[in-house]
Amino acid sequence: MIFLFQKDPDYLKLWLDSFVSSYEQFLDVDFEKLPTRVDDMPPGISLLPDNILQVLRIQLLQCVQKMADGLEEEQQALSVLLVKFFIILCRNLSNVEEIGTCSYINHVITMTTLYIQQLKSKKKEKELADQTSIEEFVIHALAFCESLYDPYRNWRQRISGRILTTVEKSRQKYKPASLTVEFVPFFYQCFQESEHLKESLKCCLLHLFGAIVAGGQKNALQAISPATMEVLMRVLADCDSWEDGNPEEVGRKVELTLKCLTEVVHILLTSSSDQRQVETSTILENYFKLLNSDHSALPNQRRSRQWENRFIALQIRMLNTITAMLDCTDRPVLQAIFLNSNCFEHLIRLLQNCKVFFCYYYYYCL
What we know:
Helix content is about 65%, strand content about 0%. It is built from 19 helices and no strands. The protein has helices at about 1-5, 10-20, 50-65, 75-90, 95-100, 105-120, 125, 130-150, 155-160, 165-170, 185-190, 200-215, 215-225, 225-235, 245-270, 280-290, 305-325, 330-340, 345-365. The N and C termini lie far apart (about 80 Å).
């Protein structure tokens, strides 16, 4: 009330601080962890102060407009606080649909795109400024997207090893918000010239893609596009940066990408041809093409023993993922698609390439 009368943003920040502190346990931004069960629930939108959503929309829009000139420290803190507020609000699942129909998500994606562009810049430029607040915003922004598009945390349960049954899914009362058209261009742009982007942030982006695909079929079919499939295949094929990154983080990135592809194949299998932007056979064709990549054709300076060991490890993971893909209810249908994609020919060629590789590797070791 004081803010509305005096138009002093400090009072709004005080209210947001108090709200976020009261429901901080709902800020589960770590995609790797299952959400903790909490008895207390954030309020429904009808219980919030009048016009508060309109006020926050204006504040968020002002942050977007000021980004071109660079946000001051207080404005950066306010933008993070706003995103935290929306995450908490979406943990009351009855709020998800209304929050998703507002313009908040598009403003947040606009800011996140600009921040990621900064984080992708050369390391020498990034050393001049502290990136902590920017990374904090990006992580919370991606968690906000997850709250909208995977409200029941299906993806988190999937990667933890828990498979939801059809009955469990049918009991999910609230639907995810409709996916914004900004997502696919945003996801694609994030992975362009991203060699300086932290592997941990790339993993968060892959988590978000997986969450959208696992959150609901309608959004999944919108997200599964030629552009996003190109990104996933490029992440697997981009072996050049493996030696520069943290092996554990790079390995996790590969694992998440393969889990995303598995989820994609399962979703496409349950859809009709008029709903799909990409066919399963096209994905498998590119998958087998990568699996049978001729690494011996690479320049010698890129063909180190460590690189080759990692490439073999990738091939093993990709083979194991085929088993995971075939672990589905419509297995006979998927088996037929695999056969029509000449999977046996690809596997035979892989075995032949392995023989050539081991001869080369033995010669290299000598």
